[in-house]
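Backbone-to-sequence.
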């Protein structure tokens, strides 16, 4: 698929595909705070899906608990709103059962880098076919501003008023050390860039990890919009940056203080994903979801009657 990424072309394409875009809209009341990064992240996802010609019936969106999870009724299509920190396991199971659909999962830095970090690690190792969007607003937003594993050191948060003691985790760098097949980073203030990154991630066949650095104007006063704009750099501005060198990607991703690089940091489009590696499913035309239709499970339910 060709990528026409300049703003004018994206807007022109979107207006031509207005009907498709509208399918992703819902009438639900938006409950996010004024200026929350979730508005733009979801907007960019809707744009990317529209521009890549996805139909709502072919997508499953899985959501974690959290402010980001409250996006579950604000996007058109099939959605699943699950337990805090567990979204990756639900999404991975769904995509293995039904590889005909695109599975997209969202999680916060709280749920993903603490409660559910085990799921993240093993999803990357196994390369499950899921697009995972990490909403990294550097705090537990929905429970009103506790420090997360990504909150900058020394910063006072509700629950740690004297300042956060440990060094923050760097999610993209962490994932790059797990031998991933796709890692990208973008910023909730830049819809154009997020759209571009998400379009590429949507076309990745394995586990696509996309970290969205997200502003949280209510609880995260440490890294507001202006803080990011003073530090953001793009991989596209680097001479000859190719996203195929994992060691270079790790070096570039390390800095969270002065030069914060955005873009597709690493990609291995040829790596076999989890399903491709399964020997007993080689050459099968059906998916588990098709096969299970031939079996009636109603007799098992009778045991509980
Ligand atoms: C296992 C579990 N632990 C804690 C909670 C309480 N809880 C609900 S939302 C939330 C904060 C979510 O923070 P994050 O994942 O960063 O998402 P955000 O709200 O910032 O988008 C917490 C701690 C829960 N519901 N389940």
């Amino acid at each position: 698929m060709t990528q026409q990424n300049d703003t004018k072309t994206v807007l022109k394409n979107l207006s031509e595909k207005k009907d498709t875009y509208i399918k992703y809209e819902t009438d639900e009341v938006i409950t996010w705070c004024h200026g929350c990064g979730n508005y733009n992240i979801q907007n960019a996802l809707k744009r990317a899906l529209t521009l890549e010609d996805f139909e709502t019936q072919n997508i499953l969106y899985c959501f974690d608990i959290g402010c980001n999870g409250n996006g579950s009724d604000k996007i058109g299509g099939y959605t699943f709103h699950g337990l805090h920190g567990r979204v990756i396991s639900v999404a991975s199971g769904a995509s293995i059962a039904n590889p005909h659909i695109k599975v997209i999962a969202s999680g916060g830095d709280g749920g993903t880098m603490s409660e559910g970090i085990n799921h993240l690690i093993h999803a990357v190792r196994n390369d499950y076919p899921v697009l995972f969007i990490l909403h990294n607003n550097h705090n537990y937003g929905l429970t009103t501003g506790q420090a997360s594993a990504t909150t900058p050191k020394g910063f006072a948060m509700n629950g740690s008023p004297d300042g956060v003691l440990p060094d923050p985790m760097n999610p993209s760098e962490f994932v790059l050390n797990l031998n991933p097949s796709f890692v990208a980073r973008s910023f909730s203030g830049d819809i154009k860039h997020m759209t571009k990154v998400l379009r590429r991630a949507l076309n990745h066949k394995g586990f696509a990890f996309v970290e969205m650095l997200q502003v949280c104007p209510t609880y995260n006063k440490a890294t507001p919009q202006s803080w990011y704009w003073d530090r953001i750099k793009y991989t596209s501005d680097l001479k000859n940056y190719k996203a195929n060198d994992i060691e270079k990607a790790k070096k570039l991703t390390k800095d969270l203080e002065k030069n914060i690089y955005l873009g597709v940091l690493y990609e291995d489009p040829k790596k076999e994903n989890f399903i491709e590696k399964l020997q007993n499913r080689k050459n099968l035309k059906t998916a588990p979801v098709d096969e299970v239709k031939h079996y009636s499970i109603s007799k098992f339910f009778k045991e509980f009657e």
